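Researcher: Let's continue the batch. This sequence belongs to Xanthine dehydrogenase YagT iron-sulfur-binding subunit, and it's 167 residues. Same format as the previous ones, please.
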Amino acid sequence: MNFNINGETHQLEVDLRTSLLDLLRDHLGLTGSKKGCNQGACGACTVLVEGERINACLALAVQYQDRAIVTVEGLGGEPLHPLQQAFIDHDGFQCGYCTPGQLCSAVAMAEEVRRGLPSFVTADLSSDVMTLDHDELRERMSGNLCRCGAYNGIVDAIAETYAKEPA
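Model: Same format as before. Here are the structure tokens for Xanthine dehydrogenase YagT iron-sulfur-binding subunit:
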């Protein structure tokens, strides 16, 4: 199978039952994405597939052949992705276990807002301009859990990075 991960092509022979998360961690050594619950409930394994966020623990690797996959390792290098820097500046992590999933999810969430996709709490569905306020941000990030409770720093970091941008 051929995979495009973080801009690099990988040709691998893996069992068809291998999850995308296990492919990343066990076969490619990309351990940023975490295996938290392995049931799609915590979001620690969130990666981007062609810009959309998915839970890699629920995805079979075979489904994502030849598609552009970005893990937290592919978000930034030198310099850091602006969101990574904001997490540092706002202490958006404690143990850091959820951080890779939070980062990938927030990057995709910002793109969803730019495209005008509503959430459950979007107040005005007819508006061309979507505001990423506190409630909207928390709702959109609700699939990513933090056992340490660093939500205030996470929300502040995301707000600083994306709330200023026009939707």
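Researcher: Any comment?
Model: The mean pLDDT is 92.
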